[in-house]
Amino acid sequence: MAVRPVVATVQLGQCGNQLGLELHDTLLREAAASGDAAFLRDTQETFFRTTETTSSSQGKLVARAVLVDTEPKVVEGVMETARRSKGWQYDARNAYHQQGGAANNWSFGYKHLGPTVWSNVADMIRREFEAADMVGGVLLLGSLAGGTGSGVGTYVTEMLRSEYRKSLLLNGVVWPYSTGEVIVQNYNVCLSLSHVMQDTDGVIMIENDHIHDICTKLLHINHVTFSSMNSVISQHLANILLPSNRAVSVPLGGVSLTEPIRNFLDPVAHLCCHPSYKFLTLKTIPQMPSNTLAFCSNTWPSLLKHLRQMLIVNAHIDEAMDWSVQLPADRESGILTRMSSRVGARQPPTPQYQPPHHIVSVSNMLVLRGGQLSTADTVPFTHRALYAPWSFSPLLVSGNHWPLGGCDKTAALLSNSQAVAPSIDRVLSKALLMYDAKAYVHHYATHGIDDEAFTNAFMALEQALAHYKELSGST
Amino acid sequence: MPRELITLQVGQCGNQIGCKFWDLALHEHAANNAQATFQPSMSTFFRNVDAGGRDVGMPTGTAPIQFLKARALLVDMEQGVLDQVMKGHIGELFDGRQLISDVSGAGNNWARGFCHYGPKYHDTIMEKVRHAVEQCDSLQCFMLIHSLGGGTGSGVGTYVLQHLQDEFPNVYRFVTPVFPSEDDDVVTSPYNSILSLAQLIDHADCVLPLCNDALSEICAKVSTEEDKCRRSFSASAAQKSAGPQEVGKPWERMNMLAAQLLLDLTCSMRFEGPLNVDLNEVTMNMVPYPRMHFLISSLTGSIMNLRDTPAGGQPASHYYLRNMSQLFSDAFSRDYQLITADPKQDLYLASALLLRGDVDMADIRQNLARVQRGLRFVRWNPEGWKVGHCAVPPLNQPRSLLCIANNCCIADTFTELRARFMRLYKYQTSVVERGHAERR
After folding, report:
1. Does the beta-carbon distance from B360 to A72 stay under 8 Å?
2. Contacts of residue B283 in chain A, CB cutoff 8 Å?
3. What share of chain A is helix, strand, coil (3-state, %, to 5)?
4. 3-state DSSP assignment of residue A224
5. Phi and psi, residue A139, nearest 5°
6. Which ipTM was obtained for this model?
7. pTM of the model
8. Residue A377, class by beta-carbon neighbours within 10 Å (0-12 exposed, 13-18 middle, 19+ buried)?
9. Residue ranges of chain A with pLDDT lower than 50?
10. Inter-chain CB pairs, A–B, below 8 Å
């Protein structure tokens, strides 16, 4: 039995901890629901470990996770919930919390609390890695709006990078509602992203607005709570985090599963192959209310067609999409050979910049879970116009036969594309507007984030945004 | 273990509000603590001590309550109010070491409080503050409750505030001052309030002013509404309301409003919820520039049981429930502001909504979108909302909304206070000049 690389999760702040609890539970539940012992074992080995069976107690399943917060209530609540009601638990030694909270202040979290947190958390992570035969990487979960997930999370990311240069780091960040959860959220988002993108391998952006829409419009949940949103986010992440096999498209359409993807974070290395492009978005299809799941019978062609259009128009739900936006019809099949012939060929610059009609990607990962994969034709996802000309083998397809979430077929698209540009643009504009008036900056200056630090952060994020916008100019 | 908060009640008004606050706090915690164990949530305001006055271990939620002591300091320069407090039913919450008093009072003179009693009792007060701080594990905030119109609350209160900043610069200072009304019976209240305000601008982190006129109007309005609802609910209810019409004196109901404000402000520090908001987050989000920290508050939902003391009577929830839309509408109406102001007519710099109890995110977002259309926000903060949600509801009500706003209408209040000051100052100057002229 081959050794699986393990993934340690660092749950930061209220959002990170509540989401992490739900995520671990979902991973285990979905793997168990598959009925396949090897699938379950692989999942358990990646995200959990088993304590030794002693004469007095059974071996227990313990999450490979470290819980961090700057106030005590959430961490204690999450550990207690896992211990009482789930079939697994957290290691009591892996929880660290302070008392005072981070005050929604990124600079307080980064400069003041970060070092103290790291000095405690470093040992916990080292212990998790030493308990494993092979280290895959670290998944950090937290929100960007507050002070802990954003400020402390940024510091921990930087420290992890310097301590574990060869391990993969993946940040799962939750964006707040654009209509406001925290007034200084735009500052916190800009400061976090501009710092984190230098050290991490990839940042998966999860937006509360999108998840809320999925809950209300597709899942028809009447009373949307953070708990219901965390369930949805966990389902999405489980789609890409659960074990899968690398797949290749066969010439006449359909997908053939070849060897297993050893370290699930390796696809991140494929997706974020260029240091200027590290922001990822996740789209999943279908999203159906639980009471209609039993009656659904989707086909792969229909699902993939909708998912492709979601990518093209940057829709987060497959409802009321703009189907008039199409890719140029003159370039069709034979994509892979054409791409290799274009590498190195110099194209003259386009004389006049045309605003893009469709989203251009650096690379994509498509994960298909369910039966009848021979009917899944993924070739349309390799269309040349979808990608920047310098993208090398931009599509990675993986999957397995076990369905997810009670639905017979699901497809997830983890995308490194211009889909991130509108959100970053919006947040940057609002932050600059507030910074122009120098509002709230004294709170940040108290802890060492001065004008220069703000300016550098804005510039770095603007640069990243410009890179993404340029993708369409280069096709 | 959650963060602690030390209350300083200074002067007659401060101590009367403070006592109502402790009464309400005890009832709130009792309602959420059937086993009478010392819950972690209680350690924000209380200590669990043995007969010798020593702290009994850490609050794990399983230790039984032995004796509760409030984390508070009671300061007054005359003894009448403090004696009443100690003889009253919450007297056991305090021991003699928490009281600082004198005999003659400050004579409604800010200078007597700030320049005479302040320095006189400086060492005593600061030593007792230090003692209270040492009993805290992770102190987050000082809460100062006082009025600005008199001498002790204004003078001694602001003197202590200045020294709290010097000695504990990292601990937040929240102040709940009661502004004097137009027809205040203290002649020198304009001087006292302006002199205090200067201190509050320099030394407080956050100020949540209250105004007697506004508080009494809210009490009157709510009483009338509850009467109507009781009568329309059932005939038997009408008979019940034919009994004692008013519970407590008007001042008691007004003090209860002020006390409820403090409880709702701190509920997220004490109880769990999907979206916690600590006091340091309130300061961070509501204060865009250091000196602009005067916040207008409005309370809806939790004030609907004003006519019933928590100890007895039918809870008002039987008669008068407000749903989410009504709560949101009330919160931005001038009728429910705790100072005389109309924030809807002026510019918002920032706003915080602290919800308690049975509410869901979709309702919050819908109502937020609806209400926002009628409000003016400053151009650099067009969606300036901070939202918090605590799962534990207030006493006798399923939900409540505390809205705190940094709004430019506070400038009108300052203008009014300044105008009163100038009227008195010009009159007094002219009297003095006339005196000089007559003597020549």
Report:
1. no
2. 103, 443
3. 45, 20, 35
4. coil
5. -110, 120
6. 0.86
7. 0.88
8. middle
9. 330-356, 475
10. 114
